[in-house]
Each structure stands twice: as C-alpha cells, then as structure tokens.
Amino acid sequence: GAALAEADQQVASVCPYCGVGCQLTYHVSDNRIAHVEGRDGPANHGRLCVKGRYGFDYANHPQRLTVPLVRRADAPPKRGDAEMDPSRVMELFREASWDEALALAGGGLARLRDSHGKGALAGFGSAKGSNEEAYLFQKLVRTGFGSNNVDHCTRLCHASSVAALLEGIGSAAVSNPVRDVAKAEVVIVIGANPSVNHPVAATWIKNAVRGGTRLIVCDPRRSELSRLAHRYLQFTPDTDVALLNAMMHVIVAEDLVDRDFIAARTVGYAELERNVAAYSPELMAPICGVPAETIRYVARLYASSKASMILWGMGISQHVHGTDNARCLIALALMTGQIGRPGTGLHPLRGQNNVQGASDAGLIPMMYPDYQRVDNPAARARFERAWGVALDPRPGLTVVEVMHAITRGEVRGMYIMGENPAMSDPDANHARASLAALQHLVVQDIFLTETAYLADVILPASAFPEKTGSFTNTDRLVQMGRQALQPPGQARQDLWIIVEMAKRLGLDWRYSGPAEVFEEMRRTMPSIAGISWERLEREHAVTYPCLHEGDPGEAVVFTASFPRETGRARFVPADIIPADERPDADYPLVLITGRQLEHWHTGSMTRRSAVLDALEPDPVALVHPLDLAALGGRPGDVLTLESRRGRVALYARADDSSPRGAVFVPFCYYEAAINKLTNAALDPFGKIPEFKYCAVRATLGGTL
Ligand code: SF4
C-alpha cells in the first residue's frame, strides 16, 4: 500500500530472470523501483514468480560498480585460487575515467590481436543482455577481433539440445509455446524442474493438469511438479537414453508409430527402428530403475494420445550424451507424429531471459545471426557484404574450449560482458586459473563478480531496468524491455560501451540506439524480418518466424514441413554412453548441480536482492536423509564435498527428493562455488559440460 502510493511512474517491461518472459510493470519513484506487478503478457497473463516480483532491488545495491576500474600497476600478480575479498578491492584496482579505461581496455586487446594474430582474442557475451547487445557483441568479435571466438552461457545450458534440433529438424527453437500444454492430452516433462526454474510455466502445466491433461514427469530428482503427475518415473541418473530407447522400442513393437507422418515428413526411420530393437523394457528396466510395465504404459500413452508434448531442461542437456538424449526426444515426437500441431511438439525450456535471443543473434562460435553457419561460403558472403569486412571461415572456440586455449597460450586476451565464468564454468578452479593467466581481461558488469576480480579493466555497466532493448523468450516471443531507471554514477548502458570498445578496436561504428541496431538485425535475420521496432513498441511482443510486415508470427511451427533442405526431419539413433566420471570407492556419490527457486544462476543479482537472499541465505547441499544419517550428520551440519578437482564446505539439508547416493547443490553460492567440483568433460556435438553428473565424496565438518 505505502509503496503503491509512493510510486509516481510506471514502466511496461519484462522480467530479467528466466526464459518464460513474464511481462511486468515497474512502479518507479525517485529512481528506485518501489514494486513490481505482473502485466497481461502472452506468456504470463499477469502472473509472476518470487524472482520477478521481489528480485528487483539488486539494481540499487550499494555494491554496484559506478566508476571504471583499472588494475593497479603495483597490484600483486593475479591468482586464480585467490578468494575474492571485496573489502580489499581498491588495493587491486584504481578508479579511472571512461576515456582512460576504454583506451586501456580496447588498446590492450588490439595490441594482442596485432602482435599474436586474430586467434589470440575471445569474447563471452551474455544471455541476460538484449538482442541488440548480443548482436553488436558478436559483430565486434567477428569484425574487430577477426575470429569467431564468441560464445555465451547457451554452451552451458542447451547447446546439446540445439545441436540435436538443428540436425534433426533444422531449427533450434521450440516448436510450440509453453501454454500449448493446455491443448495437450499428454505432457512429458523430463530433466526439468519448472516449479523452480520456470515457475510461471509450471503454473500453466498445473492448470493443464486440472483441465485433464495427463502429466508424465521423468527425473532422477522428485520435483514439486511430480506430485501432480499421472506417472512419475524416477529414473537412475545418467540413464536417459536407456529409458527413451525402451519407450521407442515399445512404440515400434506395438505398432503405435504414425506411418503416414514418417513416410511423408521424415528420413532415416529404418535405422532408428533397427537401433531401438535392442532396447526392450525388460532389458532397460534394471538399468534405468523404472519398471518395464511403467515404461510400456507411458510409451503407449504418449504415442496414442491425440496431442502429446515434451518439455525438457538441463537434466537432458548437461551430459556428455546430452545431444543423444535430445535426439531420442526428437525421435519420439517424429515416430508418433506428435509435432506440428497445437498441443504437441518439442519444447526445450530456455533458461535465461534472453538465451534464445542471444543465440538467434549469433552469439555462438559456429553460427552468424539466424543460425547461418560460418563455414557456409554463401552465408559468409552475405555477412561480409552486410558488414563490409572479410570474415574468418573457421568456427570459433566454445566456452570451455576457450579456457583450455588460454592454458595452451593460444588465447591471450578476453572481453567478457555480463557473464561470470569463474562461477559458472565447470572445473572452476581451472577456469579461474585460466582467467588469471590472461594477459589482458576486460570485464563489463554491474557488480564485482568473481570474474571481474581477475580483470585488468572493469567497465561499469547498466542493470536490466536501466536500458531499453528487445528480449526473446522460450516461446520465440520477441518482447520489449524498457528503461525505468538511470544507471548509477558513471555506469553506462552496455550498448554504448560495446560501441566505444569497437571504436578502440578500429571499427567505425555509429549507432544511435537499440532501434537502429534492431533494424540492422532484421536485414540480416530472415526469421525476424517482419518485426519492426515500431511494431515492438506498439504490440510489446511479436512471435517469430515473422517473415514480412503484417505477418502475425507463428506460435506453432513445422505444421507442413521442417526447415531442412529436403523439408523432412531426420531420425538420429542413439546408444548408451556412460557419464565421463562414475562413482567409485574414493568418490562414491553422484553430484548433480542446478538452481533454486529464489536464486538465479551465479547469484550475482538475486543474492543482492533482499527478499530473495533472506529466503535462501546460505549454501546448501541437498542430501538424502539416509545418506546423511550414514555420514553421522544431521540437517544443518556443515558438510565438505570433494571431487578430484576441488572441494567446498556447505550446510547439509535433508532432502528425500534426491535418490540415495546423489547430492544436489545449487551453483549460486560464491562461498561454496560448487563448480570447483564439476567435470569439464564435454558432449562431442554440443560441447556442453557434464554438470549433471560427476563423482564426489562427502565428509562431516569443514570451514564455511
Ligand atoms: Fe521472471 Fe521467470 Fe519468474 Fe516469470 S517465471 S517472473 S520470467 S523468473
């Protein structure tokens, strides 16, 4: 009430957290957000979760970076194993003017490029930034650094899903929006915990269940949504392919396939059929821990319903066999014809607010904007014409590959905008040592993150409500985020910083603002050619593909064909590949990492939001009560977790949603950075690390 009365300005925008893309209204007073309300957007219809509603005050946090910082000449050498100590930051850095900081930041990168070649530099952009920021960042790397060494955290979340989707159906985005669950008879949610990570999407799923949709939840961890499930399949971690191939075996054996669909719209079915013949439910049941009869029942249900939809998350993608996992889901949909109609299809739930848009805009090392491959001569020629420079035909390095290239002395300088690899990369001790070994690191962020701590130049950027831009949600909905606040102190908007950096790298860039950048994007990205900035301003949200002005956009795609050369989708069979690191006598437990409802990714925003941090203030490990008792521990005890790569101490929480022998830890706590323990082994196709499986041991005690 009091806050309502105080607010004197209302700004229509979107939520800065997850890929659901809820529209909201910022109520602003005295350059502060007083409160937030849900708006009637296509994805949320007024609903918000705890993050969207209460996670806004990070923008006004006293730890905001407000002045450019330059590492002191007499600062001690950077050490990747040095824990960040914000109270001593001014011993390492000094304040600088923007002119000096940009000259040092851009000049240092230009020198490395000129003396060591174009491969000496790499850039990480951000899935939290706008489409326009992502587009300009990748353009800066490709035209200013001279290589395709540009990536972002999509590599850590759905890179394997994207690889499988591009290969199988020619498009990496979802086929149907989340809200289509209401039109589905059967919904499979696998390897995803929407109540925590896509909370408003979870509410639509719950509403659908109330309306009669049968929900099948498949997950090694029993999520909140499984309480509403018609069937809950708690399969053994790492056995996704066994489970899914067994389902396909049943569909083939019982002739539940859609022969017309397969004949008219796919290729490669015979090979898939041969492959799944070996995966009978009886053989797979002991491997995946699900009774054969349950596998049969769920397979029949999915195949024979009028409309079945699959939604999945990181539990599918973050494995060395993540691409194979996604290939199986695609094959399931294709062999049963459960795609191309309302209430069907494939929906990889995108994590960050703009991971879809950042990927679309080309913030990936093998693709230009709109997934045009850098090694395709015709695509390269198009972008060379559009950007007026010769481009490197070789795909660039991915997130984890960059860290190894630093160790080998190949990459020497980096520009990181709005990402925190010192916390988010697997084997974080190695990642931190790599970042510390860089000759020149420029970090653009709103807080002194663990990554910024290792920088040579820190450029103070703008928080989400301090700038205007477009953002693309998990449903392919391009939406407007509008500026509600002024950046504090000398902090500047990211688009301005990228343009100034480009100038220091010798590029003659002039952009008046996001509208001009978006208009350039439309000219190079056929999928959004029909979306004008003016239309976005007027309608707030437009779905792509939107090919020409006046095109309403397509919420459901692949209705008549798939965007591959032949117009047909392709089956790709998969066989069982075990996790890279299995438990053994020394490290007997499985570590699964993920997120919590109240915190977002590495925690740099939500841990500085008072309400959210009050709800979940301490680092926790979720351990099965019997495993905790076997250790002699009780809830609340300090536990040390250790892998071959690192160790952290955190509080034990008894949690019987995890299977015995598996420990779940959120990756948002800097004081117990769990990625020090995770394994950097990569899926060979998506180059995504295996965050969902590595071997650890737990002991009671330790120092927090
Ligand atoms: Fe924000 Fe996602 Fe929550 Fe919606 S569901 S309010 S987009 S965090």
TrEMBL record:
Highest taxon above the source species: Bacteria
Residues annotated as domain 4Fe-4S Mo/W bis-MGD-type: 8-63
Protein keywords: 4Fe-4S, Iron, Iron-sulfur, Metal-binding, Oxidoreductase, Repeat
GO terms, molecular function: 4 iron, 4 sulfur cluster binding; formate dehydrogenase (NAD+) activity; metal ion binding; molybdopterin cofactor binding; NADH dehydrogenase activity
GO biological process terms, semicolon-separated: formate metabolic process; respiratory electron transport chain
GO annotation, cellular component aspect: membrane; oxidoreductase complex
Family under the similarity heading: In the C-terminal section; belongs to the prokaryotic molybdopterin-containing oxidoreductase family.
Name this protein carries in UniProt: Formate dehydrogenase major subunit
Species name: Rugamonas rubra
Phylogenetic placement of the source organism: Bacteria, Pseudomonadati, Pseudomonadota, Betaproteobacteria, Burkholderiales
Section covered of the full-length record: 215 to 918 of 943
